[in-house]
Amino acid sequence: MPKGRHILSICRRFQRWSLSTQRWISLKKEEGVIKVSDEVASALHEGRPVVALESTIITHGMPHPDNLNTALDVEEVIRQNGAVPATVAALKGIIHVGLSRTELEILADPATSSIKISRRDFPIILSQGLTGGTTVAGTMLIAHKVGIPVFVTGGIGGVHRGVMNTWDISTDLTELGRTPVAVVSSGVKSILDIGKTLEYLETEGVCVATFGPDKNFPAFFSRTSGFMAPYNIVSALDAAKLIDSRNKLGLQTGTLIAVPIPDEFSAEGKEIEQAIQDAVNSAREEGIVGKEVTPYILNKVNMLTRGLSLKSNIALIKNNARVGAQIGVELSQLRF
Ligand code: PSU
Ligand code: MN
Questions:
Q1: pLDDT one-digit tens code per residue, 207-234
Q2: Residue 55: exposed, middle, or buried by beta-carbon count in 10 A (0-12, 13-18, 19+)?
Q3: Helix or strand or coil: residue 148?
């Protein structure tokens, strides 16, 4: 081996050792609080790509048994694309990173009493030994603690319509402002105020890029929202370089990569828009507030569209899982 290459290889080995030591030291602090599965732990240790997944979508976002089937399918897509899936959730007060099939079944079971866990909920979950699904914010926070740089979901929370009266702004946005994890999602649902959500992300200093040739920020069910993201990237390698550059500068902000729903599943139609409008109105009329708002609206939209929205939802998450895994693979090759 030429001398230069030899030195490079030693440097990389040192970098890998130092990263896993740092991770080990920080995980020591959380011993007994966070349990990383053997599969995820060894992938992290060896510098292989790992992709985090949220679980509020399982506990509060989809009906049974679609929630379980989708969770299993999404993990499979990530494996097929060369990464290790790490679904995050809390079971009896222990935060799990990487779940067994039985654990996924428990979470997906409507009979399990599950809390929706965002950043503010962790102290109660831990101190009272509770079970629940982590939101985008909750999952980002844990992913970062254990050293997982990429996280895949369907849609993130955002600024709600009617925010002037309710002040309802998802913690997902502030988490993106303070936690260096890349979130791959299909933008935000138009149950939210998409323009204000993008403004808020700008305020939080989050680098937002659409994935594809168009800067039009996707609106979950539809490929375009009419609101422009500041940037677009066209490949998993570009996404990995974006994340890597952010890390090189030591920025502690998240990155949002917005992947439009595949064309054949997109529903620009009036039907979903009308259902969203009706669901937002009935949430207000019924006095739904706080963390109940998003699950209430998601469920109502699904009922009103007779499952049409659920089908699109499942298709886009699987597509995001494919893209997220490819980004994870590219990133692990850049790092080592
Ligand atoms: N949007 C969806 N599906 C979801 C959620 C949002 O289309 O399942 C979930 C995610 O877990 C997200 C959370 O982090 O809802 C946001 O909730 P809130 O608006 O209460 O912050
Ligand atoms: Mn809220």
A1: 999 999 999 999 999 999 999 999 999 9
A2: buried
A3: coil
- Give the Cβ contact number of residue 249 at 10 Å: 7
Cα dihedral 111, 57, 82, 238 in deg (nearest 10): -170
Q: Which atom of ligand 1 is nearest to the CA of 157?
A: 16
| 222 CA from centroid of ligand 1 (Å) | 17
In the block, residue with structure tokens 């998409």: 194
Pocket flag, ligand 1, residue 170 (CB < 6 Å): yes
pLDDT at position 273 = 82
Does ligand 1 come within 6 angstroms of the Cβ of 55? no
Fill in the DSSP letter of residue 210.
E
Ligand 1 and 155: CB distance under 6 A: yes
Return the structure tokens found at 45: 């240790």
Mutate to test the pocket of ligand 1, among 135, 185, 312 (most ligand atoms within 8 A of CB): 135
Tell me how many helices (H) and strands (E) the chain has: 14, 11
Upper half-sphere CA count for residue 212 (Cβ side, 13 Å): 21
Alpha-carbon distance of 246 to 183, in angstroms, equals 14
Å from CA of 179 to ligand 2 middle: 19
Q: Is 54 in the pocket of ligand 1 (CB under 6 A)?
A: yes
For the question of an ipTM over 0.90, the answer is yes
Q: What angle do CA 64, 308, 298 make, to 5 degrees?
A: 60
Measured CA to CA, the distance from residue 272 to residue 268 in angstroms comes to 8
